[in-house]
Design goal:
By secondary structure, this protein is of the alpha/beta class. The protein has 2 domains: about 300 residues, TIM Barrel; about 325 residues, TIM Barrel (Alpha-Beta Barrel). The model has no long low-confidence stretch (mean pLDDT about 95). It has 28 helices and 20 strands. It is globular and about 75 Å long. The strands form 6 sheets. A 7-stranded parallel beta sheet has the order 1-5-7-8-9-10-11. A 5-stranded parallel beta sheet has the order 16-17-18-19-20. The protein has a two-stranded antiparallel ribbon with strand order 2-3. Helix 1 runs antiparallel to helix 2, helix 4 runs antiparallel to helix 5 and helix 16 packs across helix 23. It binds ligand LYWDKB7T, 2-amino-4-mercapto-butyric acid and zinc ion. The site of zinc ion has 6 residues, from loops. Keywords: Amino-acid biosynthesis, Metal-binding, Methionine biosynthesis, Methyltransferase, Repeat, Transferase, Zinc. It catalyses: 5-methyltetrahydropteroyltri-L-glutamate + L-homocysteine = tetrahydropteroyltri-L-glutamate + L-methionine. Belongs to the vitamin-B12 independent methionine synthase family. It comes from Kitasatospora indigofera. It is an enzyme of class 2 (transferase).
Length: about 775
């Protein structure tokens, strides 16, 4: 029976795609390796979609999202749906849409992929649309319509989801060769007819509602951008024979976009009411609500894993009932950003596991809340009582309050977070100790995480390999990594991180206050997944975490080996964080634990310690008003981690995938001696940005794009280095890849690093001659 349109229902914006045991990863990687056919891949994908819809429907979700599934990335899917295929990929896409799709995502030896960057402030990466004045859009409804038909054929009510036109254009960049000042938003009038065609195709296929995701509207937008939003939804709203339109915003409050969307001739709005977006409640009241319209109310945090406070959500929903024609209950955003099922975490203390809600549990929460709204709170009395007990157990837990950790954090002073020596003095002391050549070469830390290394770890877990056997396997890898780097002629070496399952999880598993998951996979990009650990309590370091491996590697060589740590901001950004205290406080606890590790590495002989902060930029609040406060605690946490060392110990940091422009001042305030950054795909843009900002210290803009299996030629690396030298003086320029090599194979790694070292030699010779 179809539910009445005004009775509160539960719905979701999107679901995890990977399957319970990452079946999607295995199928896609199998296809790339030739082990799985295209039909086999499509069958696995269809099976995963079917299971997801079934699971949602069984839980009580009456309208399932479609089109949120993707073989690689939903923004790339939108690029395909609007026909914005970059010219260099056109022939491949025409020859074979599936192979062409993966070529856009990953590149080939001959053709570069699309640039990849973070999806708002999450750890998910999307492929950046490349547009220019000559872009011709053309509707390609095959995927959205196909997936809708699949869901309908399985008997579901379905709501196709597409990235909205504003967000699509605001996330796009000028295509290579196009004037960098080109503004993709100027293409709106050309894009809207394509969206109209997609909407018509979906309507014809049976869509009653279509959801257009517009998270870009929760960022500070100019009046011109807001006008564009008004125009877009006025035009789409004016179409005849279209489905009903739900415009979904999430990740923050809609702010100035709210009155625009509330006035637009669309039938529904999705708003986030969690965390910093809770202000949407007052804002919605201030615009007079959404009379006669559908509100999809995101009251369950879609990107963190704590159980919902059901009573609080019911109170919010009760207010919202008076503000819209229909109120449906939802997570704040797609559940893509959380793992699938907390009940699979059988290694966790069962009491603690009850505090956690992954996608399945969140789905149960929203269906419970919707039932409470429909039938009254007594109907969900048992769920409310259990929820109250679980919330109380978390609040009272000893895990969340370690007096020693709190006392140490409280006693920290501003001086603790400052290196006592000025940078020029440090630079002199470090050069005297390290004696590095001009344009020193290094890598970012990880070497290939081969199947054998992962199998060894799996073997250790399963008891097939004893701890000594495992250690010897890792030691053998460190020996090989060091020997290779010496032979290749790299100047500052790394141990290769073979023992690390992940750069955050590895530390989380050794720090008190963190919980690690066994099955809690979340898509990071394409077929790459992470298991974000849960920052559940006060953080401390019971014992050194990396010192033995550092010592082992340094004893194998006379060249400096970098101590290698993940910084405090990234330890928060790539974890599920506590929501019961300010992030700044958690960051300080993590920083103090890491500070001890830095000083232990120095005492063990490390002349260089690298503290990676790839997540510094992505964690930047989406709205400018929150940024100064964030950057103050984030940079302080980094300095607290790194400032306990001597002048002649060189502190490196590393960042990747970032739009660095907005955080130049913060990069400077980290006070790191050397920073390595991603730059290869963006043609050294960051080197110029740093130069323009007057950055005074050493910089390694990447000359090797490690996100693609492509081997850069020596000539390409030389060209990038020359570009780097146009911005940064040779005395302050390092030569390195964009990021770690863990996703690469050994053959590509060897060839690429050989070219990188050769390029450094050639450019040194040019400089000398
Ligand atoms: C630098 N990046 C990182 C981000 N976030 C992190 N948390 N970590 C990062 O490094 N965000 C931005 C980028 C994203 N980049 C990447 C790059 C590579 C990966 C990746 O390779 N992920 C792996 C999984 C890594 C891992 O956890 N490995 C473990 C477990 C291995 C495993 O799959 N085990 C199986 C059993 C295997 C067997 O043989 O039986 C299992 O447990 O089911 C390990 O090495 O021990 C991936 O496969 O996707 C991610 C983000
Ligand atoms: N040291 C890490 C940084 C990744 S961002 C690595 O090399 O993989
Ligand atoms: Zn990196």
């Amino acid at each position: 029976m179809s539910p009445s349109s005004t009775t509160p229902q539960a719905t979701v914006h999107g679901s995890p795609r990977q399957g319970p045991d990452r079946e999607l990863k295995k199928a896609v990687e199998g296809y790339w390796a030739g082990r799985v056919t295209a039909d086999g891949l499509h069958a696995t994908a269809a099976g995963l979609r079917r299971d997801t819809w079934r699971r949602l429907a069984d839980a009580g979700v009456t309208e399932v999202p479609t089109g949120d599934f993707s073989l690689y990335d939903h923004v790339l899917d939108t690029t395909v749906a609007v026909g914005a295929i970059p010219a260099r990929h056109r022939a491949a896409v025409d020859a074979d849409p599936l192979d062409g799709y993966f070529a856009m995502a990953r590149g080939t030896q001959d053709v570069a992929p699309l640039e990849m960057t973070k999806w708002f402030d999450t750890n998910y990466h999307y492929l950046v649309p490349e547009l220019g004045p000559d872009t011709v859009f053309a509707a390609n409804p095959a995927k959205p319509v196909g997936e809708l038909r699949e869901a309908l054929a399985l008997g579901h009510r379905a709501r196709p989801v597409l990235v909205g036109p504003l967000t699509y254009l605001l996330l796009a960049k000028p295509a290579p060769g196009v004037d960098p000042g080109f503004q993709p938003l100027t293409l709106l009038d050309r894009l809207l007819p394509v969206y109209a065609e997609l909407l018509a195709g979906l309507r014809a296929a049976g869509a009653d509602w279509v959801q257009l995701d517009e998270p870009a509207l929760v960022q500070d937008r100019t009046p011109a951008e807001l006008n564009a939003a008004a125009r877009a939804y006025r035009d789409l709203g004016a179409l005849t024979g279209r489905p009903r339109i739900l415009v979904a915003t999430y990740f923050d409050r809609a702010g100035a976009a709210l009155p625009v969307l509330a006035k637009a001739p669309v039938e529904g709005l999705g708003l986030d009411f969690t965390g910093p977006a809770a202000g949407n409640l007052d804002d919605l009241a201030a615009v007079g609500g959404l009379p006669g319209k559908r509100l999809v109310a995101g009251v369950v945090d879609g990107r963190n894993i704590w159980i919902n406070d059901l009573e609080k959500s019911l109170a919010t929903l009760a207010t919202l009932l008076g503000l819209a024609g229909q109120v449906d209950v939802a997570p704040s955003c797609s559940l893509l950003h959380v793992p699938l099922d907390a009940t699979r975490e059988r290694d966790l203390d069962p009491q603690i596991a009850r505090w956690l809600a992954f996608a399945r549990q969140k789905t149960a929460e929203i269906t419970t809340l919707a039932r409470g709204l429909r039938e009254g709170t007594p109907a969900i009395g048992a769920e409310l009582a259990a929820n109250r007990a679980d919330l109380a157990s978390r609040a009272a837990s000893a895990l969340t309050h370690d007096p020693a950790v709190r006392a140490r954090a409280a006693a920290t002073t501003a001086e603790d977070a400052r290196r006592p020596q000025a940078y020029p003095d440090r630079a002199r002391a470090q050069q005297a100790r390290l004696k590095l050549p001009l344009l020193p070469t290094t890598t970012i830390g990880s070497f290939p995480q081969t199947t054998e290394l992962r199998a060894a770890r799996a073997g250790l877990r399963a008891g097939r390999l004893d701890p000594a056997g495992y250690r010897e396997r890792m030691a053998a890898e460190v020996r090989e990594v060091i020997a290779y780097q010496e032979k290749a002629g790299l100047d500052v070496l790394v141990h290769g991180e073979p023992e690390r399952n992940d750069m955050v999880q590895y530390f989380a598993e050794q720090l008190t206050g963190y919980l690690a998951t066994r099955h809690g996979w979340v898509q990071s990009y394409g077929t790459r997944y992470v298991r974000p650990p849960v920052l559940a309590g006060d953080v401390s370091r019971p014992r050194p975490m990396t010192v033995d491996w550092f010592r082992y590697a340094q004893d194998l060589t006379d060249r400096p080996v970098k101590g290698m740590l993940t910084g405090p901001v990234t330890m928060l950004a790539w974890s599920f964080v506590r929501d019961d205290q300010p992030l700044a406080e958690t960051a300080r606890q993590v920083a103090l634990a890491l500070r001890d590790e830095v000083t232990d590495l120095e005492a063990a002989g490390a002349a260089v310690v690298q503290v990676d902060e790839p997540a510094l930029r992505e964690t930047l609040p989406l709205r400018a008003a929150g940024r100064p406060g964030y950057l103050a605690w984030a940079t302080e946490a980094f300095r607290l981690t790194t400032s306990g060392v001597r002048a002649d110990t060189q502190v490196h940091t590393h960042m990747c995938y970032a739009e660095f422009g907005e955080i130049m001042t913060a990069i400077e305030e980290l006070d790191a001696d050397v920073i390595s950054l991603e730059a290869a795909r963006s043609h050294m843009r960051v080197a110029h940005e740093l130069a323009a900002a007057g950055y005074p210290r050493e910089v390694g803009p990447g000359v090797y794009d490690i996100h693609s299996p492509r081997v850069p030629s020596t000539g390409e690396a030389v060209a990038l280095l020359r570009e780097g030298l146009a911005a940064i003086p040779a005395e302050r320029l390092w030569v390195n890849p964009d990021c770690g090599l863990k996703t690469r194979g050994w053959a590509e790694t060897r060839a690429s690093l050989d070219h990188l070292v050769e390029a450094a030699r050639l450019v040194r010779a040019e400089l000398a001659g």
